Structure to design on (198 residues):
């Protein structure tokens, strides 16, 4: 059986990871309060928990694991990623891997879905490379991005790793979901915040 996971990668560019994390947490908490959640005293009493952190001191991306996305509900991903991309004014990539066969990457900008990349292990992946151009590392071209989308791989995670190398997502953190992150552990500077229905 293959892997199933989802996470969000928030593009923070040159912004301080600490400042970016604070902004994301503030807006996330505000949005959850608007939906009748309150911050829980601990994760054991929480009904929905998030793990948030910039995975490198000079990282360009902030990782978010949402317990609520572990069921791979794209609508839930769309909701939180669109809201946060608008409120914090950071582009967000939503990553979803299904049974290690399919990789879906959804790009959100200013509260809207800007692009969706779908790659299967058989190759022939599709997406709008021009939409990803602002996030590519300097040595990567749009042509190379399109080529890796179309390349066949044994597992979807291989395509994800290649795309991570193109845009600077941190491995292995972009290849985990909430449950895997809890089981395998994350750096101690990641924030773990739980919320419960009020």
């Amino acid at each position: 059986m293959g892997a199933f996971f989802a996470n969000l990668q928030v593009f923070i560019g040159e912004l301080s990871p600490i400042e970016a994390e604070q902004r994301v947490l503030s807006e996330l908490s505000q949005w959850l309060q608007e939906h009748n959640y309150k911050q829980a005293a601990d994760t054991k009493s929480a009904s929905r928990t998030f793990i948030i952190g910039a995975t490198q001191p000079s990282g360009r991306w902030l990782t978010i694991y949402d317990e609520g996305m572990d069921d791979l509900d794209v609508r839930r991903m769309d909701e939180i990623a669109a809201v946060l991309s608008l409120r914090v004014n950071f582009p967000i990539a939503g990553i979803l891997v299904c049974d290690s066969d399919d990789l879906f990457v959804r790009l959100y900008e200013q509260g809207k879905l800007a692009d969706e990349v779908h790659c299967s292990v058989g190759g022939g992946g599709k997406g709008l490379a021009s939409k990803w151009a602002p996030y590519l590392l300097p040595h990567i071209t749009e042509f190379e991005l399109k080529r890796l989308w179309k390349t066949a791989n044994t597992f979807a995670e291989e395509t994800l790793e290649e795309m991570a190398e193109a845009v600077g997502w941190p491995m292995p953190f972009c290849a985990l979901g909430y449950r895997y992150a809890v089981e395998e552990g994350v750096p101690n500077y990641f924030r773990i915040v739980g919320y419960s229905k009020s």
Remarks:
- The chain has six helices and eight strands.
- Strands lie at 5-11, 37-39, 48-54, 61-66, 92-98, 102-109, 112-120, 191-197.
- Helices lie at 17-34, 74-87, 129-132, 142-150, 156-167, 178-184.
